[in-house]
Amino acid sequence: MPGGRNARTRQDAILRLRQLIADGRFAVGTPLPSERELARILGLPQPTVHRAVAALEADGTVSPADGHPRLIHPPIPGTLDRTVVVLGGGRQAKHTEAPGFSDHLQQAAHAAAAQQGWTGLAFDPRLLDEAALDRLIAGRPVGVLLSDLANRRLAVADLAARLAAARIPLVACDDSPAYASCDRCISDHAAGAGLLVDWLVARGRRRLLMAWERSVQSGWWYQPRVAGYRAALTTAGLPVFDPVHVAPLVDRLDVWAGDGPVRAWIEDHSRHWVGWLTEPLRRERIDGILVHTDGDAFAVRAALTVMGVADGDVDVVGYDDVARTSPFASLAAPPLATIDKLYPLQGERLIHLLADRVLGRLPKHPEVRLLPPRLVAPAVPDAPAQVSRPPPRQRGAAR
Fold it and tell me: Is pLDDT of 153 > 80?
């Protein structure tokens, strides 16, 4: 019996090590941590870990030590033929309850891939250099999925072109020009901005301002969001204002580290916003503000307090639906409304899009599918609660 328990424990260690490699915790081409460190990570005795690592050496997953760190081997050519590579890095512990973080997109993509009979392989895009991309292509995966955070972390600038040349499909939730040649499923940011405007107007707000950090203007979603704001106000017959572009404030605080850094962040950012909002609010008599994301909404509401604006005089709405689980939630006022981009559904849709491409259901040109978002807000008294707009027209070929 003891031998049987040891064998089961060793097999469990092998499976957990393989999962850590698949999830991107231990990346292909990098050294495997020491056996002592692995024992700490797995919570298992070091002799058990030693036997598990020996099994991975025997099947070629890692190189023998031979006095050097063991390297995690790339897949043998052709061995990824039932695998979807998910570039994003996997779930982060501090985000597990927050629906607005893209690790939920990645986890949903893994689940949807399994329903297609595929295996998901998480890969941190920061480790995808030229050599790693060559090895990935040699594995011949079913396709590659690019999460919304991966684009900023990629070390390979021409990823889409390289995968296209190798005839490996790429699906992305990023509408940047670099991915114009690949299939995309993107959140409809114009519709999201429109939902927020409609909700504010139903509350009796008539003079609405968009306020953004300048750095976000480079995001592909910036122009659609502004267009949705303008269209909704024009439809309502209300004035349209040019967005206020605020100089970015460099963050040096880890707001996940405790209340102290959170208080310091709120104080720094609220006072920063005061300088940019005082004149527009006075000149235009603004009674509603739309900001980039929920984090900015906490800072802007704190800034209004510093400015002496009475609570209820100016409504502030955010985006991304991260306020409820934000580190700011217990110390600052949240946005009154926000937008859920439905990340889990987007992860599923990306895998369905990939399946349609692999099975030949799509025309040659790229398919772009818009995912309508959801308004997260209390119902407006004496007004219908609008939680979604009619699905917008599809860009690309209709299904």
Answer: no
